[in-house]
Amino acid sequence: MSYREFVSLVHKSTKRDYLARVTERDKADVAELALKWDVDYWDGSRQTGYGGYKYDGRWRKVADAMVAAYGIKPGMRILDVGAGKGFLLHDFLEAVPGVEVAGLDISRYGIAHAMPSVKDKIVHGSAETLPFADKSFDLVVSINTLHNLYIQDLWSALREIERVGRGSKYLCVEAYRNEREKMNLLYWQLTCRAFHTPDEWAFVFKETGYTGDHEFIFFE
Fold it and tell me: Residue 73 domain-assigned?
């Protein structure tokens, strides 16, 4: 298991007003809207989610970095757990013509508004029960998804990722290292269920048998 930095450049390029998230509207109300995983989360205001999640090519640098790190070649199979609108899957197809991709997401809205190139490759479902055969993917990735699960479902999801992967695995989750980062995470998050430090995440990985790589997003 290695620590990777694939998502950090994308994450750090975004400016966040932490206090506005809790002062401009009732945080509980907007969290309830976000948890529907519908239009408010993806394409509503910035207070309830992404504030309009449009393809802008930023995930291509992440796809290229993963292709280089994991030696992805045409004919290999990649699964994205929490694929959303399929931007990363689309960029994998462009980065390695001939690669096979699949995705899963809990949001029917996200799938309905996915990139045309991968829309038919994303299935609706939950990470704790992946509808794929054992050892059927050469790379399984999950970005900013697993921290949205309650602990029992999180543990199941990690075991499922191990089950369906036959090669490399990578996940990125939110974490905090100090009280300021914890508070910023609490202010900013809308859907997070698993609030863990890096050491706590390491414990979860060990107990569930997760052997892949990982990365943490911090709200500094």
Answer: yes
